[in-house]
Amino acid sequence: MFVKDESARMGLPAFKVLGASWAVHQVLSRRPPGDEVVLVTATDGNHGRAVARMARLFGQRARVFVPSGVHPTAVAAIAAEGAEVTEVTGTYDEAVRRAAEAADKPGATLVQDAGWPGYEQVPGWIVEGYSTLFAEIDAQLSKAEAAEPGLVVLPAGVGSLAQAGVTHYRSRPDSRTTALLTVEPGTAACVLASLVRGELGTISTSETIMAGLNCGTPSMLAWPYLRDGLDAAVAITDADSATAARDLAAYGIPAGPCGGASLAGARAALTGEDAEVRREAVAIGPDTTVVLLSTEGAAANPVPVRQRDSSSQEGQRPLARPGGYGTGDARRVRSKSPSDAPGPGTAMTERASRGSPHCEHVGTAVTMCPHAVCLVSTGGPPGAAH
Ligand SMILES: Cc1ncc(COP(=O)(O)O)c(C=O)c1O
Q1: Which one, 160, 220, 261, 326, has least CB within 10 Å?
Q2: Which residues line ligand 1 (CB under 6 A)?
Q3: Span 2-9+127-377: which CATH code?
């Protein structure tokens, strides 16, 4: 098991600047030299800070809309980049609406990491920027002489990062070798809910410590990629993410709650009751290389100290700490069978074949009883996702 540690990316504690830097460069290079523009965006933390940082580096202004529930540290970090921050009493979707409205005037432009009809170019650049992360994983696994990943676990908010993952892994000749699993908070599992419904939809959300994943509507640009390219989706609790973040910290990986989500999602999907069936659905065996994306560091979005730690619950035990791992970005943390990993993994159902909308336990999973899991296997024949 490898962890792609995004706690220090271009001077910021999350991967998001990979997308923001490329998109802001593209936006500015299409404007007359010396032109001044306000870069406007909505964020649940990391993307807004990245846009604000790029605006500052390019000598431009940034205006950032932040929904309720974003950690004050994250809000302060955006303001510290010199951005004008507007706190919106409402959800992430509402903050996006306000940002789009504010950007719809001369001298302003929207740099949003989700797309909708008529707004595709900028989120497309953002997804292109994220592709760096997957190219690095290829290079780092090859350097570590590890096999191609059999499973990559992707925390999902609007699904643009997952779109980049689908584009990367499904564009290969052996495009179904790598199973792709998204992980979302149970309180904001919009990708999972849309997969289950078989169509893109909006869900109501509530607060989660995984602020970066607190989105109610998948990106419309991402949706066809998610629908056709993902193998599975899982929803987890805040307590599971907090436990996983602490376990990763014990390995020297300073994961924030969204970073911990990948480990928590892998545990939920691959362990616990009926785990064999789920592992078979995504073709995971004892020798499979698993890559977890730890998409943010604890500095981006601290794990609340009072958050209940699910490892104290029955049936759970912490990962044993191995010694002597390297300090590269992609860290090998485990090489044993996934059956050794701890985790609850309860309610589960599968779609035997692509296109079947049936998912028995979805109501439970999406509304979230503790540790509920819904794993939707979209399976399907090999083929590129384009
Ligand atoms: C730390 C972190 N991880 C993952 C994501 C999910 O990315 P996406 O919204 O593209 O699904 C985000 C989004 O803001 C994030 O901040």
Answers
A1: 326
A2: 14, 16, 44-47, 113, 155-162, 212-213, 258, 295-296
A3: 3.40.50.1100
21 is written with which tokens? 């830097």
Question: Which residue's CA lies nearest to atom 16 of ligand 1?
Answer: 212
Instruction: Look up residue 41 and give its two tokens.
Output: 């965006």
pTM: 0.84
Asked whether the domain spanning 17-112 has the same topology as the one spanning 2-9+127-377, the reply is yes
- Atom 10 of ligand 1, residue of closest alpha carbon: 160
Q: Which CATH class is domain 17-112?
A: alpha beta
Residue of 51, 53, 57 whose CA lies nearest to 65: 51
CA-nearest residue for atom 4, ligand 1, is 155
Rounded to the nearest angstrom, the distance between the alpha carbon of 123 and the centre of ligand 1 is 13
pLDDT value of residue 375: 55
Domain ranges for the chain: 2-9+127-377, 17-112
Q: How far is the CA of 149 from the centre of ligand 1 (A)?
A: 21
Q: Residue 249: how many CB atoms within 10 A of its CB?
A: 15
Question: pLDDT (tens digit, 9 = 90+) per residue, 291-302?
Answer: 999 999 999 987
> Which ligand 1 atom sits nearest the alpha carbon of residue 162?
11
Place of tokens 């990943």: 149
In the reported structure, the alpha carbon of residue 35 is separated from the centroid of ligand 1 by a whole-number distance in angstroms of: 30
Asked if 261 and 236 count as a contact pair (C-beta separation under 8 A), the reply is yes
